[in-house]
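hey can u check if this looks right to u? its 696 residues, i copy pasted from the old doc so theres a chance i mangled smth
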Amino acid sequence: MPVMKTPPAPPVKIVRDGQIAVVTIDNPPVNALSTPVRDGLLAAFCELASDSAVKAIVITGAGSDFIAGADLKEMSLPPIPPSLPDVILEMEKCGKPIVAALKGSTLGGGYEFALACDYRLAAANAVVGLPETKLGIIPGAGGTQRLPRLVGVAKAIELITEGKRLKANEALSLGMIDAIVYGDLLAEAKLIATRLPKRRLSKSPLVCSTADEISAAAAAATKKSRGSKNIEVAIETIRQSEHVPFDQAVQNEREAFLMLRESDEAKALRHLFFAERESRKVPGIADAKPREIKRIVILGAGTMGAGIAASFADARYEVTVIERDKIAAGAGMDRIRAIYQRQVEQGRLTQQAADERLTRVALTDDWEFVREADLVIEAVFEDIAIKTEAFRKIDTLAKPGAILATNTSYLDVDQIAAVTKRPEEVVGLHFFSPANVMRLLEVVRGAKTAPDVLATGLEIARRIGKLPIVAGVCDGFIGNRIFSVYRRHAEYLMLDGASPEEIDRAMEKFGFAMGPFAVSDLAGLDIAWAMRKRRAATRHPDERYVEVADRLCEQGLFGRKTGRGWYVYEKGTQPVPNPEVVKHLEAERAAKKITPRKFTDAEISRRLIAAMANEGAKVLQAGIALHASDIDLVFVNGYGFPAARGGPMYAADRIGLKEILQEAEAAARVGGVGSEVAPLLSKLAESGGSFSDALR
């Protein structure tokens, strides 16, 4: 006899309590506004409108959230009725006072829904906002028209274009919610509902903003947008609240929303949203329980060590940083103080908050503190001899069960682990500079890293607000390995005829904040020079090698830190091309009998994207990256790849892998050994496949 399946519980439930109807949205995990939820809400308002016994309605969410937003999976499908504006229209027709009881995440469509209610009551843990612009779209259910009626047009432009999420106390101060409840939220909401008159924001006047305030807000948003179409549309739509009738403005908003959701930028940003979910799928750790981490020790208080210490202090961890002597420890403490002082000067922290965070950091030259640490993070100079010496000493001092992490950005984690008696407790935690700012963190799994050690690395990364991406062991892991190829092929283009400024301009036109040569100057040419010297003994003689950067470094021209590199930097002026680069280029071209040619911006960007995607295919096939989308996350969050392009692997898919293969073949002919076409790229291009479904 067939087993009868229990039908799923309806995602919207109505419970009557005297004259109050409580409507609960129950759509785990975050009560997203999926089609069944919208269907359920529409039916609920139709039912309650005709129930004369019900005098008021309270809307709440099951679990920890009110409504965290739309169901993004539906964004890739044709619009499915009823739309959220349809639901809101039916709710307003209901004619009864409605209280929204907000808790946890109340974002996007969830907050637009709350704005259409008559009263917004929030738990202390509520977070509200309209973050749609971060997904390449704008609010599409009245948010651009109702929010200005609470905060004014100027503030609405700021909040919507920046996609700000506000905690309850800040939202209350702006008028985005009506009250905060520290006790029983639902009980208070029911009590208020019985006393509340009907009121609609659609009938309310705008909160006043002056013309100058609105112009300034629009100009600031435009400047930050770097040409994003949705920001331009958001500003225009919000400003319609000043002079367009509400119903017409809401209709205009909806049309703009539907247009933007089909844009390439919105699709790329949705890809990155789902990529973050995919990155959490790590084989081999499903049953691993993260270890408890309380005491943290960091070795080294240089730029990286100081930033790592600040990251942990920001997350309320007590941190001890060890330096080689008292003088170095004092200098390290000065670096950490400077991090917080900059934030105070920029208005991002109060002096009181900065002082409080500094109390969580201690600097010392005493290695005995390693004995009590649950996690030791090595952040010493990027040299294998120095790092292995540090790990031998850590191994003798650290207690059993302590996790030993290296912040190396290129070196072999397995070689470092091998000098300890506990390689299973060694993991790579590759922070990106500045470590207290950059969101990306590569968590490097060594050959012997224990599952619970890897799980702890991922958990601790999330607790300090980082995006952890698991990487395997190879030279440079995911990011630096691929970035090295990107930089190398940029230098090939340069030697063959494109100037550094032409290459930088082409990549900035593609969407990068900075081109590869400007980035090298910012990082310091000596960093890559040290890496090239380390690799020199093993470099294949048939790998093409460009010597210009070495000549600059031999002259002490390391970029911004020395005032000269690929560009010349003088105070108060824009960088200009360095004539020394031209001299070295001409000499190397003459020695190698290269006749320079012209390259278009499109040729430059296509070549460099193909080089990245080709190396990404090798990284993916070797298991260094678990998912193609992990590579995209690494480059968007760590290397300035434009989010609106979705990352190198996504961009390659959009261009078409047949075209990318042709370009990779051309790059291989130019680059020699090390630039060979990846077998995975060839296979996918020939079969009509894509990186998005590779290895699934």
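The chain has three domains: 12-262, 295-473, 480-693.
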